[in-house]
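Re-run with default settings, no changes from the original entry. Doing this only to confirm the output is reproducible before filing.
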Amino acid sequence: MKIRIKYKTRTGERLTSWKGPDDPSPGSFIYGGDPDRIIQLVLWNGTRPVMRSAPWTGYMVASQYQANSSLVYVVFVSTKDEISLSYSLLDGAPHTMYVLTYSGEYQLRSWNRTKRDWAIIGTWPADVCSRYGHCGPNGYCDNTDSIPSCKCLDGFEPASLEEWSRGTFYQGCRRREMLRCGDGFLALTGMKTPDNFVHIGHRSSEECAAECGRNCSCVAYAYANLRQSSSTWTEDVTRCLIWTGELIDTGKMGDVVVGSDTLYLRVAGVNAGA
């Protein structure tokens, strides 16, 4: 099967939940490509995002899940008309399927031949940190910690210490010092880059940096070369993302995680030439 979205129409196949456990009419949860920013996947409850993938960086095999002798490959492909992901299994693997439940869980299920029943071997959102915007504006969830935790991006501090001491992060983080046009950027590696980006095509890495650097409203940028994907029919194999507002739904994934990115964050006091 494929989940895909077409570049021109911003339409394509998505998963829709049932309305209830015994009601197969369409429910409120939808999973698929983001029509506004087509290089990422989103789980919605109506129009409200519940979970979001990291923006695509050009990889082909996105993920592998192994349990009960099942190995699932999730493969991204870009052509001149669409971007899609498809799923495949190793030969001899038990029947396996993804399900979007009526309660809003995206599950990976594998058939247990002994019990003759479906076993759940993966569930998303997996924890509170994988829920959309859990750490608030300008905060990020550090998944490299033994216990994932919310932190503030460099140059920021909790907007409400009282709130953070209670373990809630609705207000997120605020800047310690206001930005100036000449401030430079810190390179944060291994990141899940934020939502609400502007995607600019046909830019080199240097041109992407300059695009953000000369815009005093630009607070961050990220660049990727998509040539490693099977984008043989795609005219533009560059991906320049810039952000001009609050940074929402950011995370630290680690440098070795497929799909991790380098976020160049503008920070007060950093030399623009550094």
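The radius of gyration is 20 Å. Residues 94 and 211 are 49 Å apart (CA to CA).
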